Amino acid sequence: MDEFSRLSLHVPEPAVRPGGQPDFSNVKIPKAGSVPRPEVDVAPEEIRDLAFSIIRVLNRDGEAVGPWAGLLSDEELLTGLRHMMTLRAFDARMLMAQRQGKTSFYMQHLGEEAVSCAFRRALRKGDMNFPTYRQAGLLIADDYPMVEMMNQIFSNESDPCHGRQLPVMYTSKEHGFFTISGNLATQYVQAVGWAMASAIKNDTRIAAGWIGDGSTAESDFHSALVFASTYRAPVILNIVNNQWAISTFQGIARGGSGTFAARGLGFGIPALRVDGNDYLAVYAVARWAAERARRNLGPTLIEYVTYRVGAHSTSDDPSAYRPKTESEAWPLGDPVLRLKKHLIVRGAWSEERHAQAEAEIMDEVIQAQKQAESHGTLHAGGKPSVRDIFEGVYAEMPPHIRRQRQKAGY
Amino acid sequence: MARMTMIEAVRSAMDVSMARDENVVVFGEDVGYFGGVFRCTQGLQAKYGKTRCFDAPISESGIVGTAIGMAAYGLKPCVEIQFADYMYPAYDQITQEAARIRYRSNGDFTCPIVLRMPTGGGIFGGQTHSQSPEALFTHVCGLKVIVPSNPYDAKGLLISAIEDPDPVMFLEPKRLYNGPFDGHHERAVTPWSKHELGDVPEGHYTIPIGKAEIRRKGSAVTVVAYGTMVHVALAAAEETGIDAEVIDLRSLLPLDLDTIVQSVTKTGRCVVVHEATLTSGFGAELVSLVQEHCFYHLEAPVIRVTGWDTPYPHAQEWDYFPGPARVGRALTEVMEA
């Protein structure tokens, strides 16, 4: 008889499935203000703990506490609140527009608004993001016109992408938003390349790459870390851990690494985890990383611990794979409500003003939607020209595409 | 005018381009200090510094992905994939990203990168150092695909590729790196220094992308070839005595269809030759186009001479390789049809 028994495969499973009681006991949450704030030139090996903890600023009472607090004025926080509320209202309207058949597809940010909205405020004009499909907050917080976003979603005659891209795959060089790909993780290593170029040219601009927890399993994630570490690229490598990659829980991609942030440690990259539902914490950590990059100290890896409250996309049904009440049990709360509470505690905001702002913002979004719809929606009104199919494949149209365009009658 | 090998011509193209444009950067595996396994980049780091010519980690997807990011910034990366066979880990970045960034962003972002890669067999490279993957790229809209057949073209086309606003796949037939080749492996290679196309200007010049060249005038049959196979086709024409017109495509995408159509319309016969495997190879596209545009002028079915539908073997390399004997038999066959 052999001393070893037969092997068996370990397939991780989430703590609960539909019908069960939500359980986040595995998410270890330190007290707000308890995680130290190191100097930006700290040696990565001295802050290994930050890859396993969670940096938090807002406590349960709505107070900003600890060494990462105190960076933003009331006015800046009110602007941040407004950005998150705008993104939420925008999502609500576009989700409805998809249900009404005005577009084919939409992806909402519900629960994750703080991540991109706060991050954008830590960047400067000229910096470049290489985002995924769930960072529209980068555009909202940079005052990119909502009408343009909606034109893109509706693939109408004013769509900046001329009807070629799936809805929400925006592009804006001017607003530091690289054209979105549907192929996962490709943009992560491109961000490193952009940052390397900035360093090669002795520029002052920095780049930010974005990835979801599930996509960290892609090889380009690892390529990006190799290149960023090797050349000390001025790049911020963001991982948005919203717990779910469509229906697959974060434990599948994470494997035995403990946290996603911990993956940076093997590359010698400073790695931090932050409460992704805490606008102040996200901003503070993003600013810390941006300063490191600007001081030529190289890359930083940040894991945003958050929760995808909504479906992955309009084609997804989360009730099929997780308890319906799971989002309510998420222990880090709602980013909008937490910042609202903080501002009320500070005496800079009130329930009445919040309700009024909500109405005003929704009105702005509706006005933008009306304007966008006047240019058409996917199945009605103005459309990009069929000629646009053939344009822009190359800088100059080669003969074979010209022949095909003529064959199509354009 | 200097006499150059194709390696020297490729190096000269990068040198001239780096001197003219500070945004041109060269990187890839072993290309910096060492100068590349084929020495194509030798001396460039010493001349331009290690931030303009540098070694990369062994990560083809990382190399191409970072090049795309650099291009989005405004640089013009000219990167080396050590062998075309190693391109596959970067296939996603090449075909889904580089090729489409202009289109999907409506020109908001562009991707002026050049991916150089040694291609083809004939150096006993076995099945992992001999592939000809051009058809995988010609199927991708947004890319340009170039295969030079001599030092003069290699330099002029590579400078054009570096100056091109779109992503260019630059496939360098490694069998031609040191001299032209007539398909007979047992015979010594004629050095490029004894060949007129080894005369290469030291300075800047370009050859337009998308223009073929007629290497041998003829009236009986048209041979369409590129890269190493141009030389094999020329040898086959000489050895059979058949009055073949040999077209060197130089650029596969975009393709100079007019030159092919004019020639086949004149000769009425056509043989397509490439080193890559037969099934769904680029020859299939060429034969389709000839059929579509020259059908009423054809006096014989169009024949393809290609590598076999197997991986490239090591010991039996010369039985795999489409040499002058196989091309000669095809020429005889179309003439007798």
TrEMBL record, chain A:
Reactions catalysed, as given in the entry: N(6)-[(R)-lipoyl]-L-lysyl-[protein] + 3-methyl-2-oxobutanoate + H(+) = N(6)-[(R)-S(8)-2-methylpropanoyldihydrolipoyl]-L-lysyl-[protein] + CO2
Cofactor dependency: thiamine diphosphate
Gene3D superfamilies reported for this sequence: 3.40.50.970
EC code(s) of this entry: 1.2.4.4
Pfam families with a match to the protein in the record: E1_dh (PF00676), OxoDH_E1alpha_N (PF12573)
Keyword Repeat: no
Ranges where the 2-oxoisovalerate dehydrogenase E1 alpha subunit N-terminal domain occurs: 6-45
Molecular function (Gene Ontology), one example: branched-chain 2-oxo acid dehydrogenase activity
Keywords annotated in UniProt: Oxidoreductase, Thiamine pyrophosphate
Transmembrane segments: none
GO term, biological process aspect, one: branched-chain amino acid catabolic process
Family named by the database record: Belongs to the BCKDHA family.
Function according to Swiss-Prot or TrEMBL: The branched-chain alpha-keto dehydrogenase complex catalyzes the overall conversion of alpha-keto acids to acyl-CoA and CO(2). It contains multiple copies of three enzymatic components: branched-chain alpha-keto acid decarboxylase (E1), lipoamide acyltransferase (E2) and lipoamide dehydrogenase (E3).
PANTHER family in UniProt: 2-OXOISOVALERATE DEHYDROGENASE SUBUNIT ALPHA, MITOCHONDRIAL
Protein name: 2-oxoisovalerate dehydrogenase subunit alpha
Source organism (scientific name): Sinorhizobium terangae
TrEMBL record, chain B:
SUPFAM superfamilies named in the record: Thiamin diphosphate-binding fold (THDP-binding) (SSF52518), TK C-terminal domain-like (SSF52922)
Keywords: Oxidoreductase
Enzyme class per UniProt: oxidoreductase
Cofactor or coenzyme needed: thiamine diphosphate
E.C. number: 1.2.4.4
Name of this chain's protein: 3-methyl-2-oxobutanoate dehydrogenase (2-methylpropanoyl-transferring)
Organism name: Sinorhizobium terangae
Residues forming coiled coils: none
PANTHER family membership: 2-OXOISOVALERATE DEHYDROGENASE SUBUNIT BETA, MITOCHONDRIAL, 2-OXOISOVALERATE DEHYDROGENASE SUBUNIT BETA-RELATED
Pfam family, one: Transket_pyr
Domain Transketolase-like pyrimidine-binding: 4-179
A GO term, aspect molecular function: branched-chain 2-oxo acid dehydrogenase activity
Keyword Mitochondrion listed: no
A GO BP entry: response to nutrient
